[in-house]
Each structure stands twice: as structure tokens, then as C-alpha cells.
Amino acid sequence: MIPPRHVLAWAALALVALAVTAYVETQLSGYARTVVGFAGISAILVVSLSFSNGLTGLFSLGHPAFMMVGGYVAAVLTFPVSRKGFMLPALPEWLAGAELPLFPATVAGGLAAALVAVVVGFPVLRLRGHYLAVATLGLIIIMRVAVNNADGLTRGALGLNGIPRLTTLWVILGWLAATLVVCWRLKHSSVGRSLMAIRENEMAAACMGVRRASSKLIAFSVGAFFAGVGGALWAHLLTNLTPGSFDLVLAFMLVVMVVVGGSGSLGGAVVAAIGITVLREVLRPVEQAVGAYGLVQIIIAVLLIATLLLRPQGFFGSAEPAFLRRDTRDRKTKPGRKNRPPEGPGRFPEHTAKQEARHEKA
After folding, report:
1. Strand pairing partners for 240?
2. What is the pTM of this model?
3. Does position 197 have pLDDT exceeding 90, yes or no?
4. Least buried of 123, 125, 151, 183, by fewest C-beta within 10 Å?
């Protein structure tokens, strides 16, 4: 029996990803591996932002704040015990003696970011549009101020350096696959349909019984969890953290990737994140050669404006690539059931007969 087309497409895509990762790990330089690693982390961040913003119609810019939470929590948990005493003197005793592997630390960072999203989401998600954008920008500022003033826990503005480099391309690929699977399954479930209903018409969705507040909070928390995971992987790839790394420019870049790929399209998010990240690194030597610093940001801003003018829905819109979607037209009828359309306004033929008999008597 030949597997369905979408299963073959996913299997081929997984093999290509494994082959590319193996080639980059073994054949390319350390700088190239770092660039590819940042491209993979950007894909995780943009997929989660496309899920939380694109499906629900929210306009949240708070992803850098959740990255900051996840990055610092994971970095503190994996930081060598021998250096915690003099670099992070304000840590509790139980935390100062803990040194966890990367996976549990990453999960803890994601959960911490999701917890912050739940606490913040209750009041903030009552807002809409640019009001929500301004509120989430305020969250970035609050988190930066908190980290800057917690010198004994985060080293403040000096930054936390000496973080062990534990993030590899295989780790990034695994988390990217997990992000895609979770967001894809949620998008094509009743939860995803509820979120898209809220995006299209919130009042109509409420009239149909969709719980708006809980649905938005779920999407917001899932996006924050994977943003925290991305921040943790970021910290253990770059090996140092400063509050200035998570600024408004990063929030703008993530939104650009979502808009270019297509708001609500997970496949488009991956393509746009990888493409724009690689484009930035390719253009950086050109920027330095001509002495026009900021040229990369200008080009990306022009790309955003062109996308909004020529294709406002993005490259993929809110849909996914056709070869990855399940084709429902080729489904076979279950044995013992006839594949026939209903014979009238009723669901079963006997309903139609009863209605016709009543009509004749009348």
C-alpha cells in the first residue's frame, strides 16, 4: 500500500533536513554553523509567533521579553556551579548548587516564559490592535529593567557570559521539529479552528460558543513557551546574554518574518525566517565594505513595504504548502457505507419521505 502524498512529502522533507544538518555540522566552518543555528532558532521563534499572532489576529510584540525569561532561566540552570558563587551571589542555595543538562533547562525556560505569559495575558489580552502592541512593548521594557536591576541574579547590564555552548544544530533541529508538530497539530484541530474564527469575526465566534478569552490565552502561552525555548537555545549558542540583545529591533525583525511568510502560515514562517536570517548575514560584508551601516535594516524594511503593497497576505497567506496538506478528495468510503449525497433537506431518506407525505396531506 502506497502511503498518502502528504506523508511522503513530510518524510522527504525530514530526510532533506537531516542531510543538510549533517552536511553543515561536518563540512562548514564554525561561523557558518553559527549562522545556520541562528536561522533555525529564528524559525522556532517565527513559527511560534505566527501561531499566536497569525491564527488569532493578535498583534503582540512581546516575544523578545519571553525570550529573555527563557534565556536567563536556562542559563542560570546550566551555569557551572564553580562560578555561580562569585558571579551570581544572590542565588538561593538550592539554585546555586544546581547544574542541569540543556534539555531540562530549556524546558524550564519555556515553562517560565509560558507562566509569565499566563500572568500577563489575563489583563493584556483584553486589548486589541495597536493597544495590545503597545502593552507588549511595555512588557519588553519591564523585563529589561528587571534584569538590569537584578545584579546578583543576572549580572545586570554587564551581561551573563561564560554560558556553556551546549546548543548544536541537532538540538535546534529537534526543537524546530517539535515546534512545527505542536503548532501544526493545534492549527488543524478544533483549537486552531476556534482561533481562526476569532481572527475572522470575534463576535460571531462568541455567538457560536467559542471561548474567546481561554482560546487567546492558550495561543499566547504556547507562543511564549516556544519563545522561551528559542531564548534558551540562543543563550547556549551565543554563550552570553545581555538585556540589550532583546530589544525592539528584534521584535520588528520577527514581525517582518511573519508578515513576509504569511500571517498564520507555519511553512511560510520557516521559509521567511531562514531566508531573511541568511540574507542579513550575506549582506553584512557588503554593508561593511561600503561603510553604509544600517543598510541591512533598510533593505529589510523595503522588503516589508514591498510585501505589504504587492502581496499583503504574504508569500503563503494563511495556508500551508499544498504538498504538505492532507488531500481529503482521495479518501475512500468506509466499507459497508454508500458514498451518496443526502436525498433531501433531512439527514436520512426516511426524513425526506415523511416531509413529502406531510406536504401531500396539506
Report:
1. 161
2. 0.85
3. no
4. 123
